[in-house]
Amino acid sequence: MPSPSSSPSKAHRTGWWNQPKPQGLWMIGLACSVLGLFLWCGWQARDTYGEVRQTRKDVDSVTKTVDALQLDVHAIKTTMQVDSQQRQTMQAQQQQLQVDMEHVKAHMEQQAEKQQQLQAQQQQLQAQQQQLQAQQ
After folding, report:
1. Helical (H) or strand (E) element with 100
2. What does pTM read for this prediction?
3. Cα separation of the two ends of the chain
4. Separation between Cα atoms, residue 65 and residue 58, nearest integer Å
């Protein structure tokens, strides 16, 4: 017969802690843990997908804003080029007008000189006519 110290007593063997564990219980626990892990991962993926979708919306909005600003910049550059061309045209017209005014001024001076010469000749002719009348 075995000694009491070498084999547990029947009372010790029948305690709930010494009962054989049912195999299904730990499998259910494992399945619940795995299911919980999958749910947690799915929740995280859903949150991440939501953040990615929002980020895509933000990027699309920023892209539209940048496109609109690029159109505005293009319009401003075009306007500046047209303004620059108009300014150059006006400067060229102003220079041509100054040249034309100088020509008119020179022509008027020539006309004034001719008029003075004609007046001088007319006075000479009048003086000669008076001399001729005085001689008759």
Report:
1. helix 23-135
2. 0.45
3. 195
4. 10
